[in-house]
Amino acid sequence: MSSQRESVSRRRFLGDAGTVVGGVVGAVAGGTLVGQARSGEPNAQDRPKPPSGKKIRLGVVGGGFGCSFYWHLHPNCTVEAVSDLQPERRAQLMQVYQCSKSYESLEKLILDDKVDAVAVFTDAPSHGRHCVAVMEHGKHVVSAVPAAMTLDDCGQLEETKRRTGLKYMMAETSYYHADVIAGRHLYRARLRGDLIYTEGHYYHHGVTRIGSWQQWRRALPPMLYPTHSTAYYVGVTGRRLTHVSCVGYRGKGEEWQQNRYDDNPFVSETALFRTSEETMCRINVFWWCGHPGQESGIWIWEKTAAPGENRPTQAALPPGIPPGGHGGSHGPLTHEFVTALAEDREPAIDVYEALAMTAPGIVAHQSALQGGRQLVIPSFDRA
């Protein structure tokens, strides 16, 4: 494959194969191809269903990023309570969501019988166990990314969701970027034939220097935060990444000599995946590079675009809810979780899609630590 690409000019190769290159733009709510029935992929002119009158009573845990959603503006949701370990962030949550009830910790909030569901925006290494705790207390949950940071936590998360029957959703922003929505439409309609090759990129220079709870970002292995990139394949196809070989670029300085992640040495990582369709997918997650910070992707299809080809890129939201941040994804994420609960269906990014985006990165990092050895990625789908 590499020698063939080297012998063909980039312009001719991209023109013959049919390439879509995308970045962070647009917003939409949608579904996938694997698992239980989910919401459809509406066209831009579609309108949201009229509010049913049902109100989801939500608890929001974690200030900062947790303040950037629109739960309090959705016609089917009210923020019942908020929580953060830090008093100033707790106060910020109360102000943003116009909520007078607060708790000092997630552990206290989930004891509140008036809370139906919890939005977990805590430190990333705690997502898995926090979401398990929420479901063990009989509440639905939506979580920031990634779903978990160990395969054990992935397994516990899937088992708890399956046993309790409660709803779980991962708030992956790339899933709702306009180019990913367009890619899903192309894939479902087979307008360009089979998908041959996919890339997903997440470049965030200096992310390990950003302040974080108990410094969880410091020397964070890039592939433990993979979902902004893996969504460019899993979020388009609903298929799975099955095998991986990954290599890393070593960081410079004390940060990469001693850290909480078993002394992770890698500041940037590149992984080549085999997919369940026997295609190829390359994923980059870089914390140190001169590239502007963004999520983006590339899809190479069998055929080029047809004349007049229409690719939906967004869907209408309920009045008063803006598309929001991260490429216009926060509004659709809000709408998808709330309406999934109101309609008693699985959300688009359910536990199986979430783990299909998360687990491959965990295994990829293990491959990098073993010099790029190809490893099998375990499946967390239903048997």
Task: Pick out its properties.
about 375 residues, alpha/beta, Dihydrodipicolinate Reductase, domain 2, seven-stranded mixed beta sheet, six-stranded parallel beta sheet, 11 helices, 13 strands, disordered N terminus
Textual characterization of the structure:
With 383 residues, the chain is an alpha/beta fold. The protein has a domain at 2-29 and 179-316 and 349-376: Dihydrodipicolinate Reductase, domain 2 (2-Layer Sandwich), CATH 3.30.360.10. The chain is built from eleven helices and 13 strands. The chain has a seven-stranded mixed β-sheet. A six-stranded parallel β-sheet has the order 4-3-2-5-6-7, with helices on both faces. A hairpin with a 4-residue loop joins strand 10 and strand 11. Helix 5 (127-136) packs parallel to helix 6, helix 6 (151-164) runs antiparallel to helix 11 (351-369) and helix 8 crosses helix 11. The longest helix is centred in the last third of the chain and has 19 residues, at 351-369. The radius of gyration is 20 Å and the shape is globular. Mean pLDDT is 87; it is low at 1-17, 24-38 and 42-47.
